[in-house]
Amino acid sequence: MEPLGGHGEIFSSAAAFQGRPMTKSPAKPRKTAVPAAPTWMNPASKREFSALVAFENKWKGHATATETKQLADLIDLRCRLDGLRKLVRSALRKKDAALTISLNREINSTLDRCQRCEAQLRLVDRENTSKEYSDR
Predict the structure, then answer these.
(1) Higher pLDDT, 121 or 22
(2) Burial 52-64 (b: 16+ CB within 10 A, else e)
(3) First-last CA distance in the chain
(4) Are 38 and 72 a contacting pair, CB within 8 Å?
(5) d(CA 77, CA 55)
(6) Whole-angstrom Cα distance, residue 31 to residue 56?
(7) Rounded alpha-carbon distances, angstroms, from residue 123 to 27, 55, 119
(8) 63 and 53 Cβ atoms separated by less than 8 Å
(9) Measured between alpha carbons, how far is 86 from 77 in angstroms, rounded to an integer?
C-alpha cells in the first residue's frame, strides 16, 4: 500500500490529509475589502456601515482607518437621531412640553454634528457626483 501523497511522501498537514487544497494567505490584505463593522453596532447599523464603506471604496479605491471611524461615528449619530425622534413622538403623545423642548434641542445639536461629520467626509458631494455620472 502506498502512502497518502504518492511517490513516498506523507502529508503532515491536516488540510491536505482531508483532501482540501492548502491556500496561502496574501502577504498584504486587500485595501478594497470592506472592514468588519464595530461590534457595538446593531445589525441595521452594520449594514449601513458596510454600504458606506463600500461606497467609499468605490469612490476612491480604499477607506482609511480614520475614515472608517468617522463613518462609524456618523452612523452612531444617525441612530441617536432616530432614537431621539421616537422619544419626541412619545413625549408629544404624553403632552410633556418640557421634555419635548429638551429633546428637540438634543435633536438639533445632534443633527448639526451629523451634518458637520458628513461635510468633513464630503459624502454629499460624492453622492451628487455619482448620481450625475450614473444618469448619463
Answers:
(1) 121
(2) bbeebbeeeeebe
(3) 67
(4) yes
(5) 19
(6) 11
(7) 32, 9, 7
(8) yes
(9) 14
CA distance 5 to 7: 7
- Rg from Cα positions in the chain: 25
User: pTM of the full predicted structure?
Assistant: 0.61
Q: How far apart are alpha carbons 25 and 14 in whole angstroms?
A: 17
What whole-number distance in Å separates Cα of residue 80 and Cα of residue 86? Answer: 10
Angle between helices 65-94 and 43-60 (to 10 degrees): 140
What letters, b where the CB count within 10 A reaches 16 and e where it falls short, cover 5-28? eeeeeeeeeeeeeeeeeeeeeeee
Residue 6 confidence class, pLDDT cut points 50, 70, 90: very low
Per-residue model confidence as pLDDT tens digits over 33-56: 677 788 888 888 888 888 888 888
Residues 6+ apart with CB under 8 A from 71: 49, 52, 53, 56, 63, 121
